[in-house]
Amino acid sequence: MGRLRSCRLLAAYAKKRDGFGSAGDLLEGGAFYLRFEPYRIVTDLIEDTKTALPKQAFSEIPPALLGREARSLGVPSVVPLRESSPVYRAIEAREALRHWSDGPVEKSDLLTILHSAYQGDAADWREEHEAGLDIGFVVYVSNVENVAPALYRYCPSRQELERAGAMEPGKLEHMVLQREFSLAPAIVVITGKLGAVLCRQGSSGHRQLLVRGGMAAQRMWLASLALGYGGCIFAGIVQKYLYETAKIDGYREMQLVAYAFGNLPQERR
């Protein structure tokens, strides 16, 4: 996307920011319908990325690189289990904090957030999902209601968490570069099938995965705000520990980005 095009989009947003509330986001059926001006930058990036991809696969994808079968296209939509506030209002009220409250994340909210991001990716990248190239979510749970602290994978077909491993108390602190992320009630690592994407699309497939990972994280952040939580997108888990705990090797499955979120303190500065 050219610099002039980007400047025009940003200028259009600047003109409309006083009326930002009238073009808010809605959380319907677990997915966001984003209608404010800056989102056009993201949709343009998605379209530019799709244009750069080859029309035919470079080579057949070995089944071992696909891992679990993608079943997102048959997943019914989810109605949020509690009413959310318009995202534009949450954005207007946001502030920077470095601490989480002791209150647990509701499991239904966690599943709604994951579903929103997954189904959004399936809608934007339908052909990739049909080819088995869906994204994945690995969730490190520390404080979620009715969910034992452990490592989980999100199953989109069941809309449920599947336990994938135990978590040693205090270990998460050494798995991230900033301690405050380790204290979050939940950390979601967004993953992609790098090896399979490279077979299908060549080196441009790596760029596609980065765009998809960033968009999934953005959807999670917006969903969290709408449900009353706070969160932060960050680089993710240190690769050594990511492999030790979740067996993510960086090729068959690659960490794209991560998202930490939870309840915020009632008393704020």
Automatic annotation (TrEMBL):
It comes from the Bacteria. Keywords: Membrane, Transmembrane, Transmembrane helix. The keyword Cell cycle does not apply. GO terms for molecular function: oxidoreductase activity. Residues 92-261 form the Nitroreductase domain. The chain crosses the membrane at residues 220-242. Gene3D superfamilies: NADH Oxidase (3.40.109.10). The keyword Nucleotide-binding does not apply. This is Nitroreductase domain-containing protein. It comes from Paenibacillus elgii. The lineage of its organism: Bacteria, Bacillati, Bacillota, Bacilli, Bacillales.
